[in-house]
Amino acid sequence: MINFRAFSIACLLPLVAAAAQPFCIEVLDESTGRGVPLVELETMDNQLYVTDSAGRVAFDEAGQMGVPVWFSMRTHGYDLPIDGFGMTGQRFTPQPGGKATLKIKRRNIAERLVRLTGQGIYRDTVLLGEKPPLAEPLSNGGVVGSDSVQAVVYRGRIFWLWGDTMRMSYPLGNFRTTCAWSELPGKGGLPPEQGVNFRYFTAPDGFAKEMCPLERKDGVVWLFGLAVVRDESGAERLIAHYARRQGLEKQHEHGIAIFNDEKEIFERAIELPAGETWRFPRGRVTPVREGEVDYLYSGEAGLCVRVPARLRDVCDPASYEAWTCAREGKPQRRADGSLDFVWRKDSAPVESPEEMKWLKARLIKPEECRVTPEDVATKERVSLHEGSVRWNEHRRRWVLIAVQHGGKPSFLGEVWYAEATAPTGPWTRAVKIVTHDRYSFYNPAQHAFFDEDGGRLIYFEGTYTYTFSRREGRTPRYDYNQMLYRLDLDDPRLKDAQQ
Question: What domains lie within the chain, and their CATH numbers?
Answer without folding.
Answer: 4-118 (2.60.40.1120), 371-499 (no CATH)
